Amino acid sequence: MRGPLSVPRPPQGYPVIIQAGASESGRSFAGRWADVVFCSHASLESAVAFYTDVKARAAAHGRDPDQLKILPAATPVIGRDTADALAKHEAFADLVSVEAGLSRLAYHVNVDLTQYDLDGPLPPLEEVGVEGHYREVVEYAEKHDLTVGQIGRWYGARTEGSMVGSASGIADTIEHWVDAGAADGFVIQATHVPGSFDEFVAAVVPELQRRGRFRTDYEGTTLRDNLGLKRPGRGERKARRA
Length: 242
Known about the structure:
Layout: E1 18-20, H1 24-33, E2 36-39, H2 44-60, E3 69-74, E4 77-78, H3 82-93, H4 98-109, H5 131-144, H6 148-156, E5 164-165, H7 167-179, E6 187-188, H8 195-210, H9 223-226, H10 236-241
Parallel strand pairs: 1-2, 2-3, 3-6, 4-5
């Protein structure tokens, strides 16, 4: 709408735009418009490459790269120690059938994967739905020499971020990813609900707070405040369109 209006501007200036998509068009959109990018990676190296690329695209549009927050998915499995966490993850993985994992992947890439030999490698897919998930699968499958069936088992039980361990060990991994330039934070996902979230809040959050890496109170009253994002000036979106 064109003003003048009889109501004040929203406290956030504009709604926070959260975007997901690792394709060329998705990265370009994120660099120009997004406030937050949600992504998923099979390795620290691919996460750093994505982070560097999208931040550079934001800078190319005249934006402050720090005003674009990149939050990869992380699926922690927390145990008393690493051995306990690995045992928990194995018990979880044993519940996942190959067909269920392939169904989940097929939903993401928009390709019927039952047409391929389960004991053979995944052939190149020309057109996929979610390119980021497809790249993640190809990277992991090539690294570990997986068949289509093994990909289904892994994908159905995958834990993004490789955060399987004690609360202290998971805090170490979170710090490492942030300090390596792979993430500004994380979107925490769960192997089971609400238990996974309860464990993370009870064990990992206090450890991060003890290290000074996570807030002990909210910084403001809006999502934008608590993400560390500035309130956009009037007309900023119009300037980006230009």
